[in-house]
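Q&A log
Question type: sequence-to-structure
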Amino acid sequence: MVLPRIVSLFSGAGGLDLGFSQEGYEIAFAVDQMAAAIQTHKRNFPSTTSIAADITVRNETSGKLAVLDEIANALTDGEAIGIIGGPPCQGFSRANPNSRADDPRNQMPAYYLEIVEALQVRYNVQFVLFENVMGIRDAKHSMTFGGILARFEELRLTAGVAEHTALDYGVPQTRKRVIISGFKSDDAARSFAPITIPRDEVDLTVRGAIGQLPQPAFFSRGLTAEEIPTHPNHWTMTPRSRRFKGEVDGPAPTRSFRRLAWDKPSPTVAYGHREIHVHPEGTRRLSIYEAMLLQGFPTSFILEGTLSRQVEQVSNAVPPPVARSLAAATSVALTAASNGGQVSAV
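Response status: OK
Response body:
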């Protein structure tokens, strides 16, 4: 079976893309608004057409979303494609105490699905994979979530909704996310079943992921790549708080000083600008590279951009092992569709 080529919307650094690439899919096109994320994408997916753009911008003449013309330059009319991505989730996040139903960012899924509809006219869209935070299913967002599922039905995509925990895919972090899968074929939709890994068969501790690393470099003006040990992303903020010097006792007053435990999984890798988790030793925050390893990125993957932009990229990424299982399940599902609903033995 020839795999569909992939269009990645809201790609970020490419965690979801990496999982699909590892399963043999070609990432034909990727778009994200963050320039640094696209720099990262170009570095790690050099054969992909990756652009930094706001997908909400419309062509003044046609009224169509401008990104559609960019996608057309990377694809051939009529070819089979799959569409993947996770629209910005801050408006739905439970970690955002000010999240509300009318947050403008909550409109991003509508743009995502508008692009899907437009691509269906020109290409053979085999499947759509939509990733977001658990909060999107909360009661206050019920109209938005219900609208998303209704749009899948309008687009004649058989939708499935499932919650996935990173721990079940060998990733040492308690990250939970919602995945909406939509397939053109009912047989494919019924056959989509990502395979998990029994938790007792893999080391899911912080120690197992980062315990062997040396001290990182601390950010300073003029820091060069040669001064960063082990990996280009093994750097972090200079520890200035008295807490890092052991001068303050008692529990941390805010989540910005949440300290990891060596022999437990990490909490969700999703940081604000000053909220990178504290290293288990308590003397500094995690490095970007340590966070990447807790997300399941391979050592060969490199993030571009400033320290703060790298924080955003690693926080927003889908853990690649989760993505790879989703991709493998997609392949099985598409094969089942081509076989009339019969899943081939693996």
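Response note: The mean pLDDT is 91.
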